[in-house]
Specification:
This protein is of the alpha+beta class and 159 residues long. It has one domain: Thiol Ester Dehydrase, Chain A (Roll), CATH 3.10.129.10. 22% of the residues lie in helices and 37% in strands. It has a 5-stranded antiparallel sheet with strand order 1-3-4-5-2. Strand 4 and strand 5 (122-138) form a beta hairpin.
Length: 159
C-alpha cells in the first residue's frame, strides 16, 4: 500500500498533462573561487554548472528539485563525461545549454554545451565544453526505482 501512496504523491507534484521542457539555457558569471591562479575555470567547476543546468531546466517547467525530494524522488548522477575545448575565464558570462537526450523507466540522459557568451564586456558565442550525464532515480533508501510517469515521459530527441 505504501508504494501506491508514494506513487500518487510523486505524480501529484505536477498538474495533469504536464510535460517538462526538453531543453533550456542558464546563464551565470564565473566566480573567482571557481578558478585557478591563472584565472582559468577549474575543471571541477563544470559538474556544478551542469547540475545547475539540469535543476533550472526542471524549474523552468514549474517544479523544483526540492519538491521532487519531498515527494520521495531522488536523482543521482551515474555517468558524467566532459570534453573541454577552450578555457573559460574568471568573470566570463557563460550559458549552460541543457537538453534531454533520452528518458526511460529509471534514467534520463542529458547533453550540455558550456558557451562563453560574454568576455571582457564583448558579446561572443564560443563553445568551451560539451558534456553528457546519465541520472537515475532512487528512493529515500538509495534503491533504484521508477521515475514518476510525467518525468519518464520526456520524449527522446527527434532531431
Amino acid at each position: 500500500m505504501r508504494g501506491h501512496a508514494e506513487r500518487n504523491r510523486q505524480d501529484a507534484v505536477l498538474p495533469a498533462g504536464f510535460t517538462p521542457p526538453r531543453e533550456g539555457a542558464t546563464r551565470l558569471r564565473v566566480r573567482y573561487s571557481e578558478c585557478d591562479p591563472m584565472n582559468v575555470a577549474h575543471h571541477g567547476a563544470y559538474p556544478a554548472w551542469l547540475e545547475l543546468g539540469r535543476t533550472e531546466l526542471l524549474r523552468a517547467g514549474g517544479v523544483s528539485y526540492a519538491q521532487l525530494e519531498h515527494a520521495g524522488v531522488f536523482l543521482v548522477v551515474t555517468r558524467l563525461e566532459v570534453r573541454y575545448r577552450r578555457p573559460v575565464l574568471y568573470d566570463d558570462v557563460i550559458e549552460v545549454r541543457t537538453r534531454v537526450k533520452a528518458a526511460g523507466r529509471v534514467k534520463i540522459d542529458h547533453e550540455y554545451e558550456v558557451v562563453v557568451v560574454e568576455r571582457g564586456g564583448s558579446v561572443r558565442e564560443e563553445v568551451c565544453a560539451v558534456a553528457s550525464t546519465t541520472i537515475a532515480c532512487v528512493d529515500r533508501d538509495g534503491r533504484v526505482r521508477e521515475l514518476p510517469a510525467w518525468l519518464a515521459g520526456v520524449p527522446a530527441s527527434a532531431t
